[in-house]
Design brief:
The strands form 5 sheets. The chain has a 4-stranded parallel β-sheet, with helices on both faces. Strands 5-6-7-8 form a 4-stranded antiparallel β-sheet. It has 15 helices and 15 strands. The chain is an alpha/beta fold. The protein folds into 3 domains: about 1-130 and about 140-150 and about 200-280, HUPs (Rossmann fold, 3-Layer(aba) Sandwich), CATH 3.40.50.620; about 300-400, Anticodon-binding domain of a subclass of class I aminoacyl-tRNA synthetases (Four Helix Bundle (Hemerythrin (Met), subunit A), Up-down Bundle), CATH 1.20.120.640; about 410-469, no CATH class. Helix 10 packs antiparallel against helix 13 (about 385-405). The structure holds adenosine monophosphate and zinc ion. Zinc ion binds next to loops.
């Protein structure tokens, strides 16, 4: 399997350190508001990667952090006259609700920054002891000039970065690129005791401390949106490698932006739709298909037309799935050799996904499968039960379990409904016969008994239909 590594800027063979274990860290949300559909692109794509690695037999330890102490949370708490904790807890809960609605599998761990303050303090102390950090009156900074490889992820040298970067101006810093590891408390802000006095951690140290705690000093995959390459991930490397003296991450993966009119969707630009608003209009499956149809590295423009066409795509797959389930439930024809090569579609799916998670190709394989299976069913009146089961299983393995673009709600209940529907039809035929014979007493008895079961009959000119209540 090949993965594009932002660090080497090329596709590399994927070799986790301790297979079948894969350690995977994804930079999660800052919980100060509902997340937008741009954030959702990164969350959903990382979920698809994790599911595909599991499909391949890896045991994925997937960690997604929640940044629950941050300037934006503090600002919101002041505006809304709440505590920072109230704000972050409220939006953490909304985050969990929204990712569940997006059919994102819960991470193995969802560590929160405020629950790891002691690990962060320990790491900052270590960096200070090793000469990588300095304290200026209760503010502790990372000394970038001491980490010789600074810039190795973003591919820039320190001088270029100083000129090009928009960095916080702070007169206490020795170098404009130095970044805060510990911020001295300000009036009304949440704070914790530390060797440098009361304060709170900087954003970058949160991810280093949490990934090391939950996944070890070297992790296999670290992912996040493109906006995090610099400075966030560059700083994570500097802190972690300076503290541990080990490669921090083997494979760096970055998601392209979801744009609106070719501009990055973001809260600060105000050009965003929240994921929950979009979920009110489109199903999770349609949204996921919309994301999967573009390769994760490149940009993707948000568009209603594309989402509508994804919704149609999902319907096509669901229609086939429903037919397969119904035909399987009503079929007793034993196995026989048939001329439909499932292996080919499994192989094509894997070839696509093994090539740096090429979801657009993987989706194309599923649509080819849907087209070919529909054709096969039309052309062959009698097919064994095994065909319908194998075809359903293919869709479950790929479209349901890996991409999450098909809902597996046509399970047992619906199969039972299909069988029940047949039984009700039989009863309706008997009832119609009874009415012809003027045996209204028995005909009414059937109507009443069905009514008790929640099945309502409607007599019309063309016969009787039924509705479940
Ligand atoms: P935040 O809550 O801003 O820290 O972002 C959470 C995650 O969403 C991070 O991995 C970001 O890189 C990612 N992200 C933010 N904006 C976008 C966007 N427009 N498109 C794709 N990913 C994004
Ligand atoms: Zn992070």
């Amino acid at each position: 399997m090949q993965i594009y590594n932002t660090y080497s800027k090329r596709k590399e063979e994927f070799q986790p350190q301790n297979p079948p274990l894969v350690t995977f860290y994804m930079c999660g949300p800052t919980v100060y508001d509902y997340f937008h559909i741009g954030n959702a692109r990164s969350f959903v794509m990382s979920d698809i990667f994790r599911r595909y690695l599991e499909y391949k037999g890896y045991q994925v330890k997937f960690v997604m952090n929640l940044t629950d102490v941050d300037d934006r949370i503090i600002k919101k708490s002041i505006n809304e006259n709440k505590t920072a904790k109230e704000v972050s807890e409220f939006y953490s809960d909304r985050f969990f609700e929204d990712i569940a609605k997006l059919n994102i599998k819960p991470a193995t761990e969802f560590p929160k920054a405020t629950q790891h303050i002691s690990e962060m303090i320990e790491m900052i102390s270590d960096l200070e002891k090793k000469g990588f950090a300095y304290n200026v009156e209760g503010n502790v900074f990372f000394n970038v000039s001491k980490f010789k490889e600074y810039g190795k992820l973003s591919g820039k040298n320190i001088d270029e970065l100083i000129v090009g970067a928009r960095i916080e101006v702070n007169e206490s810093k020795k170098n404009p690129l130095d970044f805060a590891l510990w911020k001295k408390v300000k009036e009304g802000e949440p704070s914790w005791e530390s060797p440098w006095g009361k304060g709170r951690p900087g954003w970058h140290i949160e991810c280093s401390a949490m990934s090391i705690k939950h996944l070890g000093e070297t992790i296999d995959i670290h992912a996040g949106g493109n906006d995090l390459i610099f400075p966030h991930h560059e700083n994570e490397i500097a802190q972690s490698e300076a503290a541990c003296d080990k490669t921090f991450v083997k494979y760096w993966l970055h998601f392209g932006f979801l744009n609106i009119q070719s501009e990055k969707m973001s809260k600060s630009l105000g050009n965003f739709f929240t994921a929950r608003d979009v979920l009110n209009k489109y199903s999770a499956e349609s949204i996921r298909l919309f994301f999967a149809q573009t390769h994760y590295v490149g940009p993707l423009n948000f568009s209603d037309e594309l989402l509508q066409s994804s919704a149609k795509g999902v319907e096509k797959i669901s229609n086939l799935y429903e037919i397969l389930q119904q035909k399987s439930a009503l079929n007793n024809i034993e196995s026989q050799t048939i001329d439909f090569n499932f292996t080919k579609y499994y192989e094509r799916f894997s070839i696509a996904m093994d090539d740096d998670f090429s979801t657009p190709q993987a989706v194309a394989v599923i649509f080819d499968f849907v087209r070919d299976a529909n054709k096969f069913i039309t052309e062959n009146e009698i097919l064994p039960k095994s065909f319908y089961n194998d075809a359903s299983e293919y869709l479950v393995n790929t479209a349901v379990n890996v991409l999450g673009i098909l809902k597996d709600d046509f399970s047992k209940n619906k199969i039972e409904d299909v069988i029940d529907d047949k039984l009700i039809d039989i009863l309706l035929n008997i009832r119609s016969q009874l009415k012809n014979e003027k045996n209204f007493e028995l005909a009414d008895m059937i109507r009443n008994e069905l009514q008790i079961l929640g099945i309502e009959l409607k007599d019309g000119k063309d016969g009787t239909t039924f509705k479940r209540k």
